[in-house]
Amino acid sequence: QLQLVESGGGLVQAGGSLRLSCAASGDSLDSYAVGWFRQAPGKEREGLSCISKSDGSTEYRTSVKGRFTISRDNAKNTFYLQMNSLKPEDTAIYYCAVDHVRCTFGMDYWGKGTLVTVSS
């Protein structure tokens, strides 16, 4: 059973940066699409970024494009979300997730989340 654990969340001032990590155990990430999602208080979960299983291409939500970068390190069985130029509206619980086929809201496995708070 694959397990995912996020880390790297915290409190940061607007304009600052954080790097989230998602460490996997129980299986290799090589055969999964990997992605990041977030959910702000009172709002629905939204997809942020994904690395495709088929060709390694990346995609981003418009609101984070140019500020967030997703990457993976298969040797460490970990993937990341580098977040720059953070804004108060980025405050949310951030979740990593993986899927055997592609990134959707119905990913196969999810982490428990890490809180990111951006102060103005």
Oligomer state of the chains in this structure:
single chain
Strand content bin: over 45%
User: Overall 3D geometry?
Assistant: globular
Largest sheet: 7 strands, mixed
Determine the N-to-C terminus distance: 40 Å
Query: What radius of gyration results from the CA coordinates?
Result: 13 Å
Give the mean pLDDT: 96
- What is the β-strand count? 11
Notes on the structure:
This protein has 120 residues and is mainly beta. Helices cover 0% and strands 51% of the residues. The protein is built from no helices and 11 strands. Strands 2, 4, 5, 6, 9, 10 and 11 form a 7-stranded mixed beta sheet that branches. It has a 4-stranded antiparallel beta sheet with strand order 1-3-8-7, with no helix packed on it. Strand 5 (46-51) and strand 6 (58-60) form a beta hairpin. The protein is globular, with a radius of gyration of 13 Å. The termini are far apart. The mean pLDDT is 96.
Looking at this protein, list some descriptive labels.
120 residues; 7-stranded mixed sheet; 4-stranded antiparallel sheet; 11 strands; 0% helix
What does the secondary structure layout of this molecule look like, with pairings?
Elements: E1 3-7, E2 10-13, E3 18-25, E4 33-39, E5 46-51, E6 58-60, E7 68-73, E8 78-83, E9 92-99, E10 109-110, E11 114-119
Parallel strand pairs: 2-11
Antiparallel strand pairs: 1-3, 3-8, 4-5, 4-9, 5-6, 7-8, 9-10, 9-11
What's this entry about, in short?
The chain is mainly beta and 120 residues long. Helix content is 0%, strand content 51%.
